[in-house]
Design brief:
The protein is mainly α. The protein has helices at 12-27, 45-56, 58-73, 94-111, 120-147, 151-157, 162-182.
Length: 207
Amino acid sequence: MANPLRPRRIDATDVARIAVFAAIIAVLGLPGSFTVLGAVPITAQTLGVMLAGAILGPWLGALSVTVFLTLVTLGLPLLAGGRGGIGVFLGPSAGYLLGWIVGAFVIGLIVHAGGRKPVTWRTFVGIVTGGILVVYAIGIPVQALVTRLPLAETALTSLVFIPGDLVKAVIATAIVMTLVRAYPRAFRRTWPAKVDASVPTEPARVP
């Protein structure tokens, strides 16, 4: 069984999948963003990060987010609201953006733990852990540092993002489980067949 902590060789198909999910994250920024009680914009792009980690796995998921953020760094206005350039990594949302990379990796680790087939509860837990808790754990301290506000106050104002992120986690989980049933090839993985213990196996015949 493949070790999820060990990156595997990337082929042309993987490159295409990385590019597709980087594009998905970019497209999800087209509706724009809005700000509530703070300087960090609320966008739909975290949904793309959640899907990247859950579908591509830890390494490819994190790499797709890295590719997206690299394009942003080069000046492409791919973030919600048409933002781009290295300046976005010097603002209040810098920690959240970097947290996307780690978050996608953690999501992939949990959703595909032990090389097993994704199930609803583990997918949701993985998405919430990586896509919300990890991103906040990196984003909030950086936001507090940039805005020069107390960490506790910054964390408290960030609670406004939780309901929206939970909705995105539910949507991402539903999409992932739909793909598991309808199009498992999207994951490019082979899961161990489930053995039905209620069916007796025929003993091997000795010649």
